[in-house]
Design a protein that fits this description.
By secondary structure, this protein is α/β, with parallel strands linked by helices. It has one domain (4-182). It is built from three helices and seven strands. The protein has helices at residues 46-53, 109-129, 161-182; strands spanning 4-18, 27-36, 60-65, 69-75, 78-84, 97-108, 141-150. A seven-stranded mixed beta sheet has the order 3-2-1-7-6-5-4.
Length: 183
């Protein structure tokens, strides 16, 4: 398998925090790029290599994975990207679950952090309910963001309609990709 690059244009800017490959810190992005690499991919500096084969700038949220399956969908005012590859999970860095959730409404920085918690809990719940005794892989990445960042605290945990809906959608997406992975 050669490297495949998928670009998802978000049509507007989002303030995002991520544990993904790029960018770092609180950033403003308007596209997601997922680089699908071969399972035997091994590069200690993947960002350098990726920048040689595709345009990456400060408006790009970048994920890298050896996963074969992914979902990109919009539900109400929320954009979701989930890629999943977990076979032979362990020290091999190519097996990853990447999740991005971008909300088209005003959120505070605290609520973005809350959404990262919601996303992670939903992913872990789906893995456990699927019968896997893992909470993720060694290279998982998550991103959460908002179209409008505000200072006053807005809650987004699972006790809120927004957090509850996001948790359910992430759970369903991870479960669907697990079925594809193990069929």
């Amino acid at each position: 398998m050669s490297t495949i690059i998928k670009t998802f244009d978000l049509k507007e800017n989002y303030f995002v925090i991520t544990s993904g490959l790029y960018p770092s810190g609180l950033s403003k992005i308007n596209k997601i790029i997922s680089v699908f690499v071969p399972e035997d991919y091994n590069n200690p500096e993947p960002l350098k290599e990726i920048k040689k084969i595709t345009k990456i700038d400060s408006s790009t949220l970048l994920f890298i994975t050896a996963a074969k399956n992914y979902l990109f969908f919009i539900n109400r005012n929320v954009i979701y990207f989930v890629s999943l590859g977990i076979r032979n999970t362990g020290k091999h860095a190519g097996h990853t679950i990447n999740i991005a959730v971008l909300v088209k409404e005003r959120l505070s920085f605290n609520s973005i952090i809350e959404l990262i918690k919601v996303i992670t809990e939903a992913k872990c719940g789906a893995l456990m309910d699927f019968g896997l005794n893992i909470t993720g892989t060694v290279t998982d990445a998550v991103a959460a963001g908002t179209s409008a960042l505000v200072k006053n605290t807005i809650f987004a945990g699972t006790a809120t309609p927004l957090g509850s809906e996001i948790g359910k959608n992430v759970y369903r997406a991870v479960t669907e990709l697990l079925r594809k992975e193990f069929d």
